[in-house]
Hints:
- By secondary structure, the protein is an alpha/beta fold.
- Helix content is 30%, strand content 17%.
- It has a domain at 5-38 and 91-131 and 181-257: Rossmann fold (3-Layer(aba) Sandwich).
- It is built from 8 helices and 9 strands.
- Helix 1 packs across helix 8.
- The radius of gyration is 19 Å and the shape is elongated.
- The structure holds adenosine-5-diphosphoribose.
- The site of adenosine-5-diphosphoribose has 24 residues, from loops.
- Adenosine-5-diphosphoribose binds next to loops.
Amino acid sequence: MEGCFEKIPNCNLAQICADEIKKANNIVLLSGAGMSTNAGIPDFRGPNGIYRRQLGVNPERIFDIDYFLEDPSFFYKFHREFLQTLKNIKPTYAHKFFAALEKNGKLKGIITQNIDSLHQMAGSKNVMEIHGGIWKSFCIDCNKTWDYEESMKLVFSQEVPRCDRCGGIIKPDIVFFGEMVKHLEESQKLVKECDLLFVVGSSLVVTPAALLPRLARGKIIIVNKGETNKSYLPSNIPTLHVEQDIDEFFKAVNYHIGLDFE
Ligand code: APR
């Protein structure tokens, strides 16, 4: 098939992926929430995803900036639950695999849609949190900022944390729907320059992150056991779709590569 890996019957996808990694010199990972489900953090659109919950309102409003300004308590109820989950989590096998790939010089960077910091916890250094993160919070009126520890105290002591200087609502540095994403230009440059792009654990429905693979000029390997939106994918780039569990798959890949971590 022009531009795509053929559906090779009975092939060993892990072996093919391992061979592509061995050939590549400039690998980039675009990760999504599916990367962290085996760590105990629910994704959004998977079978047990947050957006499948019956919350009485559209769950996507959790991260809607207009709804946040109207009723911040809806977001903070979810955010406290999320932060509790973060307390005991550890990076998954796949997080550690990609950290090891960066350490051995093959992986140039990670563009993550996730805010759980598991890539950094696994030892990855060049991580771009395109949807922001929880490292700092700020007052939406006077812009006073708080670091992670300080903001945790506020989040768990007030239903809606408010600024002690002006009384404004405090918001974590997470990108909500309707806000500009972060590191977009750097991310686009990384993808353009890579010879192998991994898209792991993402449904590829939220732009502009979902548009990044169309900038790829090498090969693309997608690992997602659920539904991947293919409408933004380039048709002229060899693309391998692996519909398996992420951690099981990368354990099989590493069987053929032998990276030493754990
Ligand atoms: N192995 C393989 N695939 C998995 C696993 C797993 N262990 N766990 C989940 N998945 C798949 C799900 O089936 C789903 O298709 O990963 C995909 C995750 O997709 P989403 O939940 O849509 O997550 P993501 O693509 O990161 O969402 C993008 O949406 O709401 C916004 O800001 C939020 O960053 C998020 C953005």
